[in-house]
Amino acid sequence: MKTKYLIPLAAVATAALLPSVGVAQEAGVEAAAHTSYILTTLLFLVGGFLVFWMAAGFAMLEAGLVRSKNVTMQLTKNISLFGIAAIMYWLVGFGIMYPADWLIEGWLGPFFAVTALEPVALDPAEASLDYASAGSDFFFQLMFCATTASIVSGTLAERIKLWPFLTFVVVLTGFIYPIEASWQWGGGWLSEAGFSDFAGSTLVHAAGGAAALAGAIVLGPRIGKYSKDGKVNPMPGSNLALATLGTFILWLGWFGFNGGSQLAMGTVSDVADVSRIFANTNMAAASGAIAALILTQLIYGKADLTMVLNGALAGLVSITAEPLAPSLFLSLIIGAIGGLIVVFTVPLLDRLKIDDVVGAIPVHFFAGIWGTLAVVLTGGYHGEATLGAQILGIVAVIAFVFVSSLIVFYVLKATIGLRASEEDEINGLDVSELGMEAYPEFAKG
Amino acid sequence: MKTKYLIPLAAVATAALLPSVGVAQEAGVEAAAHTSYILTTLLFLVGGFLVFWMAAGFAMLEAGLVRSKNVTMQLTKNISLFGIAAIMYWLVGFGIMYPADWLIEGWLGPFFAVTALEPVALDPAEASLDYASAGSDFFFQLMFCATTASIVSGTLAERIKLWPFLTFVVVLTGFIYPIEASWQWGGGWLSEAGFSDFAGSTLVHAAGGAAALAGAIVLGPRIGKYSKDGKVNPMPGSNLALATLGTFILWLGWFGFNGGSQLAMGTVSDVADVSRIFANTNMAAASGAIAALILTQLIYGKADLTMVLNGALAGLVSITAEPLAPSLFLSLIIGAIGGLIVVFTVPLLDRLKIDDVVGAIPVHFFAGIWGTLAVVLTGGYHGEATLGAQILGIVAVIAFVFVSSLIVFYVLKATIGLRASEEDEINGLDVSELGMEAYPEFAKG
Amino acid sequence: MKTKYLIPLAAVATAALLPSVGVAQEAGVEAAAHTSYILTTLLFLVGGFLVFWMAAGFAMLEAGLVRSKNVTMQLTKNISLFGIAAIMYWLVGFGIMYPADWLIEGWLGPFFAVTALEPVALDPAEASLDYASAGSDFFFQLMFCATTASIVSGTLAERIKLWPFLTFVVVLTGFIYPIEASWQWGGGWLSEAGFSDFAGSTLVHAAGGAAALAGAIVLGPRIGKYSKDGKVNPMPGSNLALATLGTFILWLGWFGFNGGSQLAMGTVSDVADVSRIFANTNMAAASGAIAALILTQLIYGKADLTMVLNGALAGLVSITAEPLAPSLFLSLIIGAIGGLIVVFTVPLLDRLKIDDVVGAIPVHFFAGIWGTLAVVLTGGYHGEATLGAQILGIVAVIAFVFVSSLIVFYVLKATIGLRASEEDEINGLDVSELGMEAYPEFAKG
After folding, report:
1. What ipTM was estimated for this complex?
2. Which of A420, B190, B440, C257 is the most exposed place for a label (fewest CB within 10 A)?
3. Which of residues 280-319 of A touch B (CB under 8 A)?
């Protein structure tokens, strides 16, 4: 339960039914509460499966943007990190993020904040009907945790070993993400400080980007990426059809990511807000893509598909901190600036010799910061967002995630080792580490 | 808001609740109106994201059916055309299509029919609750506009340059499609003339096919497609797995395309109709695929996968003009005839030396016409469709779209140029125009 | 209509509204029945399109796991089998499975149990509102029938000819599946014997696996798979990115498969149960994947992506017999054991020289049996499942499907022939049988 919408539902229902009288009125209020509970639960189920689908989007995007000798590894990392996120978020993450819940529901006491579901065949008379079912809430929130981990895997591709990466995912999904997300969505100090992040431009995307940045720094660039004379050697992705598919999947999933974060669909007002969010989210993605398309044509004389794809994603990240309040026109502007940011920050990272294989840092980190700042253009859905509070939130979350990730990566490097051997990296992780090629019958270029 | 279902919702709700009395009754009517508004909005949101997904389907289908040297270009066109459609339909399209809305909502007056959304946290007391939220309606209708453009890109693949194509998309999605669609779904003269096209066999599919036909005529065939001795040289698609994936995606999205076009889900009657539409749509796709499978086996002695895929799509296009009224058996017949049409019209186009790279004209143009005519088999959902009105609508829409597209394509040809140079076409548009291969590591055959 | 949830809806609604009086009360009960009917119908529509999407998942999984010379064939089989299932389940299957329905609705009397839909613009006063629309129910159930056939196609890949395979699908989807499914979900003898299979671990998955096993035995292994000296020669799949995509698609679709099988979403209790099912289903998939990941690392010293994919699917199959009753922890255990079963039974089949190209028998047959037995750990959602009844159901269904499939395969072998010629198999079915390569431009290894 993010803290945004703790609407006293019964009051809404009562207002909707006034003026009515007596027992029929009470029955009506009760029926309205039932319907509202069902519809908000449905929002979480549909939103949740759409965000689940984003895991497939990241897998395809990243598999398409790495070289063919590392595709099996990238696929293995992506499906495994989702599995780990699902388990860790259940075991500790959800309980850390929403302390009130696990104190009641947890069955291992203080050691693990294990999440429990409501009973089978829930009796409405014994349930709180002003929100949604616990199972649907857990299902939906879990997907945000997994998304944070998916962001990291692309940046670190083609050189990090499997098990150190998955160990980092354990810490990220079980602890780092839940802790920082609890500051805001668990009703913690950031939400009290007035920070506003509707669906996670900072809490999910800049956080994932900060972890990716920490990992890229510790790992160092791929062999041959940066020549000693300062030249950047392109290492083109092996399958742009897959990368495009991944982008479309992410775009689709984002309707659930942002729309579901309304956290309510039981009233006319809420469903109209969800509609605004869908329309704005789509607009920001479109304008991010078109901005990158035009800018790459102007700068390089050639449209650049990978920039268009990342432009769409940056548009999506940018609108995520506040997809509700902007007009369609403002959403267009916010998304377009996100697309421009990608085009300008991809070469910036290369100049810093930070090797981000898929462009996740420009898309999620830089556009995520932009989107969080852009909330002040509207004041946010509650009309009270300030630049100070936004900067506070961005700095706090990024600093925490970056530093804690840096520590974890250094510990892993010093213990089990983080990076594949030079020979393994040159041969490709698929053959060297997994013994399985993704496209065994197709000749390599 | 298509014109079909302007049901006085309050009346429906009242009828459902009779006989009841007094204030409780009024409250009940109001609550029913709220629930109905929420459910119809939900139909548009779910239907809308499913139709959005069709953009990915077209991208994969077309990327799979072009040769590998043009895949990056095809992907770039497809994601960009969606972005353009999203912006143009907001800027002018929606306002042209539904004039009543933008006159109220538009904020740039007579110059642009810019679409605006309902306010955040909509007050039910100040909203019209007999339909759905404006945002969801815009979101849903936008996807139909984008679909029309997606149809064109496949036919013109492998030879049209990027920017002329995208310029055409600007005109198509901002003006051509919204104008002809307004004739019917905006309550215009075609709807008054008794034309019946439930979800767009003509308004979307034959229209897109007519634009594709105009483009193919102006562009001419690919180099080497037709030998001087009249021989047709097959240029097989580079990735049939992607093409099949694209077909499945389109099939899935079509449930939203046809089901959402019921435009209402707030009553038992409406949701039962949506169910009929889902079942009929699936049946027509299945029978279109199987008809093409059997017919290619009989004619050529070999089942032809690309024909089966296009057969399924033709079945879907065929049922789109009237997915509600037919029985499952009639849906099977309508879809199967769609599948047969594809098998017969693909070689017909080749005989006319019209080079349609992916078969979009057979699927969308010819099967779209068939589907629109097939409405008379049932009389349509309102029982009044006549052959005369159907022919009138088909001719009017196709003539308008074909002629206006022809003009735009000729103007583009005469000004910025339409077609890649011979050398660029032979080298492939990916390398020559974009400098980026889709599968850089895989050897070309 | 599975038999599980024939809740007297009016009673539920009445209870929800008590204590209220007079005509307003009756109106309220009626309105609640309408809303419940709409919501359960919506569950079937959304659940149905998700399970439809599984057909694409099987197609991608299988296309990715066969060698490139057989990809076009595998795609052709997969889309065609879905078309056949849609037609056969309409023509006879649904009527066999739910006899009461077709006796009323069928229009060809005793010869075919043809399914009919409810009328257009259904009048609520003339409809039974305690369940869902007939069209949505048919649409949803059809997808389960198609899934059963999809399971078979992977095992028999790379050697079975197209038309014999499709002929088998006609019998499987029209007769074999509907007959055994009617024993339980049609209210038949197995349901009366106390057998419990919530969404089909046995009725769909073990049944599909049993048919696949029968086919694999009759067909024999691929040429070169098993050397005379007992060596097993790996024949790696041609595209693991596609296989991973297919797995993610199946995982997504499974939320509809299991969640929709609640068969009701009109009450707080039902939607909370659907939420439990979503959360448990996701957990079992995650733990199945991670269990296979860890076990392959421990046994072989290398993580095995194809095992991780099949581990996730086995987790999903395992939880399908009872996704509602378990806690998240028990779901983790059930899914993990499913993942382990795959790792152990894949080599077992090879030792028996049963050549299952994609691992469908381990995933669907063995994990399906495990999942059905695991129902006794909770007693099932109704709390009465016994080991005896579970074993009875497993044995009855598998014996029936295996023997009848064996007979059909032998008859096909003896008549039109089942297996491609040795030369055709070596050249690949794409070129030899279909004359169309899936990746014509990419060199073969």
Report:
1. 0.94
2. B440
3. 280, 282-283, 285-287, 289-290, 293, 297, 302-306, 308-309, 312
